[in-house]
Amino acid sequence: MVKDVHVRREVEIPDKVNVEIEGLKVAVEGPKGKLERDFSHLKPLILRKEGDKIVAEAYFANARDRAKIGTVIAHIRNMFIGVTKGYKYYLKIIFSHFPITVKVEDDKVLINNFLGERSPRIARVMPGVKVSVKGEDVIVEGIDVEAVGQTAANIELATKVKGFDRRKFMDGVYIYKKKVIEE
Prior knowledge:
By secondary structure, the chain is an alpha+beta fold. The protein has two helices and 13 strands; from the N terminus they run ββββββαββββββαβ. It folds into two domains: 4-84, Alpha-Beta Complex (Outer Surface Protein A, domain 3); 87-180, Outer Surface Protein A, domain 3.
């Protein structure tokens, strides 16, 4: 097994973003809000702030440790984008048999009349995520890419068709666009 003596990756801290690192816990605060992430399960990793950069490094790293460093840097970069711009997912309501109605109540999305079912199908909305329905579009937005993606996946999974031919029964709510809010 080949080990590298020293592996180092860094990411630039954008303007208007404040970063606090305590051990392997990272808190990022920007104009849109604050995100915290705990990387303490990635032990041989060292995280520190050097001027206007965050450095992730490991000594005597094998392939798995090198992958951990890349993953941590990608997560931190996503946190920077989230607190400065935000994320938005678009889902389309599609039906050919029964007209589907979608409502948002507190931390749930209710999907009524899916394939003519009497009881609504329920999708959970993750904390910190805003869901709105505009016509045939469901818009999911927030600053944490994982929470936004999980909420969109929950809505899509709530309308998963089982026991029908997917070529004929294409009814459901499907993700069709993901973007970073550029406002």
